[in-house]
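Re: that chain you flagged

S.,

Sorry for the slow reply, it's been a week of failed gels. I finally had a moment to sit down with the sequence you sent. For the record, here it is as I used it:
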Amino acid sequence: MNRNEAEELFYSLKKELNSDCPLPLNKQKKEKKDYAYLKGIVNMLICKHKGEYSCDFAPKELTVITEDNFPVRVLPRRANGVFPSVTNPRAIWEIKEYYYTTTFGSRVSDSVYAVQLDGWELSEAQSQTGKSIKNYLIIDDYYTWWMKGKSYLCRLIDLMHIGLVDEVIFGREVVTRIPELVEEWKKDIESNRNSK
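Prediction finished late last night. Pasting the structure tokens below so you have them in one place:
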């Protein structure tokens, strides 16, 4: 999506869902200051489908993996979101929306590197603990990725192929994919409860 399409979808969902979940603002100034559209869309969709489960939409702590209530691994960065909490989550995600970007540069490459770092950490943690945490990258802005950043799109595909990111979700795709993922996360939690 471009910024106008994201804005339209955001306000449409905001009106339809009337959600009480956090809707953060973007980091722009003056007339560009508004909601962070993609993050808001993702948050509203998760709120709608999470049921009784909690979700940390803006973790203030690092993600920690525990065994017998003892921390065995702490990720080096805060995720944009975790389900259901920062302790032994089923999923973490990074959301990158570049609707106001006019050039292609270090911000985009930094986001690719950040999700790669998370992937290495999660892969190593899984080999040590056997606990699997899904790692998602949710991105948007047609101009940034499809006009300027095709080489980075190739890098994202590489990250999926080597298992460092479970899925990259593009723009409007969140409307169908996020509800499916939330259902998968809930089933995973329930099946783990039943197996104990």
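What I noticed first: The mean pLDDT is 91.

Talk soon,
D.
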